[in-house]
Amino acid sequence: MLIDLLFFFAAGATLSLLLWSGMELLQNQEDPLGDRLEELQSQALVVAQRTARRKSATGVDRIQSMVGLFPGGQDWMHGSERLLQRAGFRGRHALSIYLSGALVFASGLLAFMLWLQRGNDIGSMLGGIVAALLLGFMLPKMVLQRLVKRYRRRLQEALPDTVDLLGIVLGTGLALDQAMMRVSEEMQYIYPELASEFATVVMQVRAGQERTVAFNQFVRRTGIEDIKSLAAMIVQSEKFGTSLAQALKVYADALRTRRRLRAEAAVGKAGIKMLFPIVLFILPVLFVITLVPGMLSLLKDLKLLGGH
């Protein structure tokens, strides 16, 4: 009875905390200018800020220090933070919220496994505990990797139109920062992900960061080759004084060609992907529908002949 009560309490707490973590991660908490200023301050006072952060950390921020005490915890946190950034979650407490959600999910899964394994021997219980812990830490990372792929796909889909619009705005005589901010404002409701990335780059440059460094960080955040080529083109055009508007127009046409080729490749793979569901699910049903009535009629006729 006590185990059942503990299980239901853990399940309710896990569900509540997971919902809260998801809502916190999905909220737009980006502040590019504030993040840049905080980064500049941290570069000047690294030791002092780390000491102050350890003293003043409260709530979910303490989870990072707790996880860092375990072997391999720092590497796991760095990998999770990089994935969160590439998935578009760059809030101040995004990593802490993700870590708390992952730990709560693993704890809930462990409690559920203990409830299922009640009354079994020690060997089966240990196997269930190990399986629950592995799944509890692997499934959140798999979900996060899926979110990274979705975020990259949205950026790639938005890139051709956004680059074309950037070239048009640059052709009107605006500077690069003003053009990028104008494109970000225009594309905010159509392609919010890429618009936010452009706004982040502009805010970092306005905060005093070099344009080359800002674009390199843009490339590291996204990890997309097309954005890497775009950043290199913009930096080289600014360095050598060439016409950026014309280069962006040509590059936008190339991006549209790549997008069309990706769509054609996806269509070509669709037939192969549909083969397995057809063989496993559709063909057996068709065989049953077409052959079973004939077999039943044949068995009925055979019974009638046997009776005579």
Attribute tags:
mainly alpha; 85% helix; flat; 308 residues; single chain
Structural summary, described in words:
The structure is a single chain. The chain is mostly helical. It is built from 12 helices and no strands. The protein has helices at residues 2-26, 32-44, 46-56, 62-68, 73-86, 94-116, 122-171, 176-186, 192-206, 211-222, 225-240, 244-307. Helix 7 (122-171) packs across helix 12 (244-307) and helix 9 packs antiparallel against helix 10. Mean pLDDT is 76; it is low at 40-57.
How do you describe this structure in short?
This protein has helices at residues 2-26, 32-44, 46-56, 62-68, 73-86, 94-116, 122-171, 176-186, 192-206, 211-222, 225-240, 244-307. The protein is flat and about 100 Å long.
Envelope shape? flat
The helix-and-strand class reads mainly alpha
Q: What proportion strand?
A: under 5%
Number of strands: 0
Distance between the termini: 65 Å
Average pLDDT figure: 76
Give the biggest beta sheet. none
Number of helices: 12
Instruction: Report the order of strands and helices.
Output: HHHHHHHHHHHH
Radius of gyration: 28 Å
Helix coverage percent: over 70%
- Which segments are poorly predicted (pLDDT under 50) over 5 or more consecutive residues? 40-57
Write the layout of secondary structure elements.
Layout: H1 2-26, H2 32-44, H3 46-56, H4 62-68, H5 73-86, H6 94-116, H7 122-171, H8 176-186, H9 192-206, H10 211-222, H11 225-240, H12 244-307
Helix pairs in contact: 1-6, 4-6, 5-6, 5-7, 6-7, 7-8, 7-12, 8-9, 9-10, 10-11, 11-12
